[in-house]
Amino acid sequence: MPYLLAILLSVSLLSGCQSAYYSAMEQVGVHKRDIMVDRVEDANAAQQNAQKQFTSALEGLKALNNFHGGELEAAYNDVNDQYKDSEAAVNKVKDRIAAIEDVADALFEEWNDELALYKSATLKRDSANKLRATKAQYQKMLAAMKRAEQKMEPVLDTLRDNTLYLKHNLNAAAIGSLQGEFNSLQREIQQAIRDMNSAIAESNRFIGHLKK
């Protein structure tokens, strides 16, 4: 029970910190809509970085498959570094998506609450319609981002498996046995990149919608 209370308190404090942050930013003229745009752009940059890192990891594994002699320890270290960098890139994408969800919740809640303040039925109806349209566009973008995020996990799994296998079987025969993994990883990376490109395209459309 104390552990559960600690978790609930931490969540409450984090939520409070975010609310205080949004309030402070509004005091200097930066509104939730502006923060949303910035965070979507950050997520796009994180996905582009993940694409580059996955491509680099694929090249590293390709070089390992073509290994014909040399320092095996150096070859393993390169694969291990690529895995760690890929894991960091994926975690950054996840963090960026979570940040978008946080500000979206705050933005839409505020927007919905403020509908009750309108005296003009026409303006209220127009604002409500725009809220629904923005929510729909947001959900479409978020779904694309989540699909891309899910496609990253198989890539990490394959890279992790290769790294662990080489760690305990560092010899030429082990490298040869990983050649079959290369084609699988290549397909997974290509699919992940396609989904990330789709998510980035949806993000750009959403940003355009917000800036109208």
What report would you give on this structure?
The chain has 212 residues and is mostly helical. It folds into 2 domains: 1-29; 31-210. The protein contains 6 helices and no strands. It is elongated. The termini are far apart. The model is unreliable at 1-14 (pLDDT under 50).
The largest β sheet comes out as: none
Strand composition percent: under 5%
Low-confidence stretches: 1-14
The gyration radius over C-alpha positions equals 23 Å
| Total number of strands | 0
Mean pLDDT: 85
Number of helices: 6
N- to C-terminal separation?
A: 49 Å
Multimerization status: single chain
Which structural category fits the helices and strands? mainly alpha
Order of helices and strands: HHHHHH
Number of domains: 2
Query: What's the shape?
Result: elongated
User: What level of helicity do the residues show?
Assistant: over 70%
